Amino acid sequence: MSTNNSMPDVPPPVQRFVAAINDADTERFVSAFAEDGFVDDWGRKLTGHDGIREWAATDAIGMGAQMTILSAHVNGDTVTTTFAWKSRRFTGESTGIFAVRGDVLAGFTIPPHH
Questions:
Q1: What is the pTM of this model?
Q2: Where is the secretion signal located (predicted)?
Q3: Three-state SS string across the chain, please?
């Protein structure tokens, strides 16, 4: 399992999400989400484990993604992050908003930049 000693303090589901991407482990990535979880990438929303698996293939793990959380703000069950992303599809910094539900993620949103 990848470790990033400089990762800001974030809830375990967010840590598992990042580690699964960096380890290229699709099944562990999908299992970080609730059955009815979602990924919303600039308004493209994929729901359920099948949708999340599709996003992992087309935008994340399938593109060789590596993710580093640069900063995080936890407010209840919402974790707003700034992260660095490097992949064959996109390289740069973005905002990521995680909705945590117990020990899994209810959702991950990358809002469009204005």
A1: 0.92
A2: none
A3: CCCCCCCCCCCHHHHHHHHHHHCCCHHHHHHCEEEEEEEEECCEEEEHHHHHHHHHHHHCHHHCCEEEEEEEEEECCEEEEEEEEECCCCEEEEEEEEEEECCEEEEEEECCCC
